[in-house]
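In the laboratory, one determines a bound structure by crystallizing the protein with its ligand and collecting diffraction data. In a computational setting the workflow is compressed into a single prediction: the sequence and the ligand go in, and a structural description comes out. We illustrate the idea with nickel (II) ion.
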Amino acid sequence: MASAAMPTVPLPAAPAATAPAVPPDLAALRGEVVALRRDLHAHPELGFQERRTAAEVARRLQALGLEVKTGVAKTGVVGLLRGDHPGPTVLLRADMDALPLQEDNAVPYASTIPGVMHACGHDAHTAILAGAAHALVARRQRLHGNVKFVFQPAEESPGGALPMIQEGVLEDPHVDAAFGLHVWSDLPVGRVGVRAGPLLACADKFELAILGKGGHGAAPHQTVDPIVTAAQVILALQTVASRLVDPLQPVVLSVGSIHGGQAFNIIPNKVTLLGTLRAFDRELVRALPGRIEEIVRGITAAAGATYEWKYTSYYPPTVNDREMAALVRRAAEAVVTPAGIVDHLQTLGGEDMSFFLERVPGCFFFVGCNNPAKGIVHPHHSGLFDLDEDALPIGLSILVGAVEDFLKAR
Ligand code: NI
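The predicted complex, in structure-token form:
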């Protein structure tokens, strides 16, 4: 998940009581997957710089006999497994990038790169997907279709999914469904979050400059005060979520930065604001920026000020297909039992898995990874983030189960 993680739901009280049912051939891959995760954790790389990670992934996929493409969207890697029988193609996606953050954990596999850390769990995603490739190669006689293993750069920013799509990752062969997962620190290990419909929000940015006319703080009548105007704009923006949008529809509009003026007795010429808009509904995401600008236009005009407005859409909402979510849910129930499924989990954080799911039916899901008994309690994007590695075979088993269900004989 990209920066500004925003877990929004309360923790389920306890891990699932039953031990996860990981098939023996997949449980046998645990050591390999954990070792790769720890190796990647110790050698984190920032977005579009995942050269060591990509080389390691490509080496493993080639050793498995897959058709491998490297350098897709700079550092992305794609492996193609052709099943023993013809059929559709399913895409599995993992992100490979780390964060610009100093690791504070004293573990043997702690980051060896100062100021860079796998603090979101993308090391686990990459290791799980490499393990899934190994597992599915061994099970290829069961597959009626193909599996495309996509290791993408730069999920945290600026996003590697869209450039990979632009370079053709959804074609040759054409992709019919897409699955991906995120380890999730708000869920205990043994729990899995799966739901149909919106899962993560859009993560958009606006930049606003309010242009007035500066002057002496003792003579405000001779100025157009952009500070007072900015204050009115900020308050008016609070009505976007509360008065323009159906209250059953989650929306967040936050102003995260405000700058203007330098002295106590001078009214400045200009105030600049930065903010973010988060929402799940694609129509709302299209409509709201225009409405927000209308509010800004009206208030600045009333004050005699002008404005400059720039709105940037980063990631669209991540929306799961109903059928594909049901398929993942079945695969997850086989591993963690129906009692281990959490179906209400959503977050207003953003994810560029959304670009795949805008184009192809699919499902992105959360694999619980906290474990208070082991002291693993810190959130994503914390220098103390870590995960219970029992989550790795769980995620792996669900991906393999979902692929086999999608590619079963019909
Ligand atoms: Ni993440």
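Residues 1, 120, 122, 155, 182 surround nickel (II) ion (CB under 6 Å). Keep in mind that any predicted model is a hypothesis to be tested, not a measurement.
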